[in-house]
Amino acid sequence: MSNSKLLLGMATVLLGLIIFLQASALPYTVEFGPGPGFAPWWIGVTLIALGVGLAVTSVFKRGEGERYLLLGEEALRAAGIFAAFGISCLLLEIVGFVLAMTLFQLTVLWVFERRSFLLSIVAAFLGSLGVYILFSTLFRVPLPRVFSWGI
Predict the structure, then answer these.
(1) β partners of residue 34
(2) CA distance 117 to 82
(3) pLDDT digit string (tens) for 54-105?
(4) Using CA atoms, how far apart are residues 51 and 5, in angstroms rounded to an integer?
(5) 142: helix, strand or coil
(6) DSSP 8-state assignment for residue 127
């Protein structure tokens, strides 16, 4: 039995339960579609299910020599991607959704994945624009402006 996986599973169940209970206080649907409680409710349910699965498998599956910590270059890479995501979130209202997400995806693809610059910029821009169009038109999710100049 892996104690760390068991504890992580239990913590995930607890987090999922907290999210689920908080989301249950919000309307699940509104007159035009999913309400503010829809996504957090499903996130809570998913976390509970995944936490239970992790806890149960940690009891029945023995793993020796597993590594749990990110060390060296892996830790720097994870911290860099996390920082890039945080910066892109801060830039959303300033430069707009498409540009902020393009910069984030460009950073991940070009800097951390070491893809070619041309491929990275094209994939980042088209991916960001595609996500914006998909969520704003098909799903009707209000997103920040496309670009900072109000488009």
Answers:
(1) 29
(2) 21
(3) 988 888 776 555 555 667 788 888 889 999 999 998 998 888 889 999 999 9
(4) 9
(5) coil
(6) H
Q: What are phi and psi of 72, to 5 degrees?
A: 60, -125
CA–CA distance, 7 with 10 (Å, rounded to integer): 5
- With contact defined as beta carbons under 8 Å apart, do 105 and 127 qualify? yes
CA angle at 42 for the pair 37 and 44, rounded to the nearest 5°: 95
- pLDDT band for 139, please (50, 70, 90 cuts): confident
Q: Containing H/E element for 29? A: strand 29-30
Boundaries of every domain in the chain: 3-60, 73-138
Contact 62, 34 (CB under 8 A): no
Average pLDDT over residues 21-48: 89
Helices 38-60, 3-24: axis angle to 10 degrees equals: 160
